[in-house]
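Example (one chain per record):
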Amino acid sequence: MLASFLSLSIFIAVFTVIFLNRIERKKAVLGGAGALLLLGGVMGFYTPLMALEAIYFETLLLIFGMSMVSAILAASGIFDQLAQRVVQRSAGGKGQLWILFVLITYLFSLMVNNLSAMVVILPITLKICHRLRLNPLPILVAEIVASNLGGASTMVGDFPNMIISSAGHLHFIDFIQGMMVPSLLLLAGMLLYFQWTERRRVSFDSAAVVLELAPVEVNQAQLRFGLRLLAFALVGFLLAEWLGIRPGTVAMIVGLIGLFAGGIDSEKLEEASGLGDILFFAGLFVMVGALAATDVMSGLVSVMGVFGDSHLAQLLGLMWVAALVTMFLNAGPSTAFFIPLAGHLYMATPDPAVWWALSLGVLAGSSASLTGATAGSVAASQLDRYRLEHPEMEETMGGGQLDFRGYLQWGLPIMGIFLTFSTLYIALIAR
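Predicted structure:
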């Protein structure tokens, strides 16, 4: 009992300081992992070998491989050029332009990590909103949600699905079958919601928009290499099950090829390889492993008893509770925290809907609050920097803020829409 209490206290303390932005999240998690290893060694419930076994190395390989692909394609300049061409050649009005940017964010997030997609899209979005005197807040929120939806659609689009893939021994095609259709329907629902609620503020008029943006030079050699590497990765993921190998093996090969032949600047190699994210999730898995080594996870499993013996009720309980926790804990940590519980439910009733319930719950929660998804924090930081450089944007924003409280006016209704539809979807596919 004491070990459980102390372990949970350390876990809560780590994510409290992360939530309050007191310590950089990688350092906080690695410190927490070290503290739990020390506590486990002293009290005899957690050994270094157990910590090593708690790490999902396949997830780390997926992060490494797809981070390299994202970095190579982004460095080529192709994402910036595609986004600018859409703007310059759009024959529609401001509303159509806004919708196109949401769709671009979704599509980019399908192919590369959704956070990488946001890093590319955000500067162009802010520049366009500034020139057209549009309030950027609802547009940025819509792009954050679109990046979450794109990431949730595939195995490699976001960190939660990478974790679920490793834990559930799932393949690329499994996520296409289980998550692509609901994510597309949720994307349509999100667009309709913004069309209805933000029509005036986003200026959905029919006036054509013509913008002249500085041309972006594309490194053709790097682009060709990046596209070939992406194609190799996607084909490898699709054939992995048939070949009898895990997606992590494919990702490792892709990452190593990109590392040695991708032409990435040595100064940017750490960021390109996703080392920060790899260390963060390695530490996170060690922390969750420590909780699993005590009675904390057993207590969580017993709590699920409030939903009765019904398999469907337990799936829906997992989804809704995961959504609520993700609002504050962030998508990646929440997924890692609920993986043992999802695994317990899957062992009781081998139904892949368990994994989709968890993924959809995390998706809803990550779209509900600014802290739910890392993309939200990145968007808020970029907006703050842009406002300092262009104080005249304050007038178009009407005093609004992209902070935790301000985001909730859009995020909570979106979470409600997502959970309502996801409940129907899980009820339809659950065995």
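Caption: Confidence is low (pLDDT under 50) at residues 204-208.
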